Predict the 3D structure of the following.
Amino acid sequence: MKTLREKFLEDGFLVFENFNTPDECEAVMRRGKELAEEFDYKGNASIFQTSEQTKTTDDYFLASGENISFFFEKDAFQADGELKTDIFHSLNKIGHALHDLDPVYNHFTRSPQMKQLAGELGLQDYLIIQSMHILKHARIGGVVDIHQDATFLYTEPESCIGFWYALEDATIENGCLWAKPGGHRTSLRSRFQRKSGGGTEFITMSEDPFIAEDMIPLEVKKGTCIVIDGMLPHYSLPNTSGKSRQAYAIHTIDKHKHYPKTNWLQRDLSSLSGF
């Protein structure tokens, strides 16, 4: 029988049902709403949009690696700049240091079951570098284009591993993840990095297109954890349903691998820890 690590190396992802309890998921969702309602967005309205990320990048976004920051859906605002609805239901996500700065997210991230899983996958030398509460609200949650996590958290050699937690049921209708088993055995298509003169840019590393038709939906129940290799192409479609699809995600890197200063997300790696 294959070990978890062998299965992960083969498929590029692992799915663990009932990894977190409903109460654990509810605690994170409740905390996310509390943080959103406390946020004064006036003058800090940063939009997150995967297809236009270089255009929507700002200083607020670039500083978010060390903070708890809030990012809006592209269609959240009216022509006059006011929100179409309440602030919580206007947000795309909250990030990117939730796991280090908030006790609720820290407890969820460094749970006993996560410590055990990290050990079984051989991640004792991995650092948790980023976390995101992804809201994907009903009828407004936008598309996440096909991408590889290593594009955004690049190391030499590549080492990024992500953990995606379903805080609510994820279905085709409300925007579940899509991926191809074994799809991580491919080349890195691009890097998202800081430009020397300010702002960000995508550096093309391969012109080979991603093929969405090869991918399968990862429909999962609330409490499921999906482990994702940083090279695995994956995406999610817009939420056209009447049900939200909240998720929490963290990304980890091997502390022994080189993390370039050009990466968009910069943190003091010496201050970070793992599980």
In short: Residues 190 and 205 are 5 Å apart (CA to CA). DSSP finds seven helices and 14 strands in the chain. The domain at 4-271 is CATH 2.60.120.620 (Jelly Rolls).
